[in-house]
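Researcher: Sequence of Succinyl-CoA synthetase beta subunit follows. Predict its structure.
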Amino acid sequence: MNFEEHVGKALLLAPAGIAIPRGVVCTTPDAAADAARGIGPVVVKAQVPAGKRGKSGGIAIAVTPEQAASAARKILGSSIAGYVVERVLVEARAEIDREVYAAVVTDVESRSPLVLFSAEGGVEIEELAAAKPDTIRRAVVDVTRGFRSADSVDLLRGQGLGAAEAAIAEVLAKLYQLYRDHDAELVEINPLALLRDGRVVALDCKFVLDDAAALRQPALVAAAAPLKLTALEGRGAEHGLKFIQLDGNVGILANGAGLTMTTMDVIAQFGGRPANFLEIGGDAYTKAEVALDLVLSNPGVKSLVVNFCGAFARTDVMAAGVIRAWEVLRPSVPAFFSIHGTGADEAVKLVRERLGVEPYDLMEDAVLAAIEAAR
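Model: Prediction complete. Tokens:
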């Protein structure tokens, strides 16, 4: 779950004692002009949950209220990374001496929180990691002891931060606590600015909430940015199905999110391109017709993998739902089945007799056949 910059600053950084510039969220050019009159020279920034706003024309400097209004007029209503800009943040322009990067992220490799710092901020971290990987310092955090200011000092040592080192160390410790307290996947400040007057100020904030923690964070959920859905994804949401549309050509129906992602990984491993994420486990088999239509409505789909593995859920019940949907929709794309677990014998018989398709003994073989058929 993603958030716009102003939300991260107001709900997370400021309450934690991390300095942010004075700013006003505006939805009209006139409001932007009024904000600039009260602030002085400002930066007008598009509020969308996406990066590279500057490169997309979503950030402008304004010295006068008239310039702020003009900048807001150009930015509001524009499209950035698929989002239509409905708000701008009109924020005091900072006198910057130096920019650094600070973040805490969930690290898949170490299965732990990871604190990141770079003395070179203000650029995309992916670009920095590719061009200058040695400039990024990393600290894997033991969650049983946390991450304190003293740990930050160790991470920052030798970075030439001078008098600002202690303040930046404090920011890193606070970022980690925000990450823990708010069930984050990512909390990032880029840039964290060292100002000419000696202050350390967060000029941006990127926050990503772990979706699984939504029930624990109702205030944040209420402030989250709306999801950007394709037409097919929106249709899936209307039916209570989690459908994610991709640009591949091998469609997937599987029961359970884990098996679905495994199927996607195997397709990619063998050189194919998965066309979607969609699982029809639990009672979702009752929506098999909607689910199958979603997958096949993706114009890139050239073949389909149906992968069922039953434990408590019976694969013959799931297969029966897909078969009924198949007989109604009568798709032309070839389908390749792999069925294992509870009810597998009955499920295989159903697919063989009703669809005239022979399921594969191994998932890998079904995937390979689907990839070949999609070419």
